[in-house]
Amino acid sequence: MEGLFAVGLESEGVLFNDTYVGNGVGIGYSFTSGRLGGESAANSALKAN
Q1: Quick one: which of 10, 9, 14, 13 has its CA closest to 24?
Q2: Angle at 37 between CA 34 and CA 41, to 5 degrees
Q3: Is residue 27 a contact partner of residue 6, using CB atoms and an 8 Å limit?
Q4: Where are the alpha helices (DSSP H) in 1-49?
Q5: Per the count of CB atoms within 10 A, which of 25, 28, 30, 38 is most buried?
Q6: pLDDT score of 20
């Protein structure tokens, strides 16, 4: 779906079998995917204008 962006553990889907792994294991991925997703969303918005 164009324009839809997902980040964090929820965006991985089957990697963790839709189960929260706890203890901050996913915090690094959340930061990284958040930044990458934000950059991609911003670039997409700029191209649309």
Answers
A1: 9
A2: 135
A3: no
A4: 27-48
A5: 30
A6: 60
Give the predicted TM-score (pTM) of the model. 0.62
- Identity of the amino acid at 19: T
Domain ranges of the chain: 9-48
Give me the long-range contacts of 34-41 (CB less than 8 A, separation at least 24): 34/7, 34/8, 36/7, 37/5, 37/6, 37/7, 37/11, 38/7, 40/5, 41/5
Within 13 Å of residue 3, how many CA atoms lie on the same side as its CB? 4
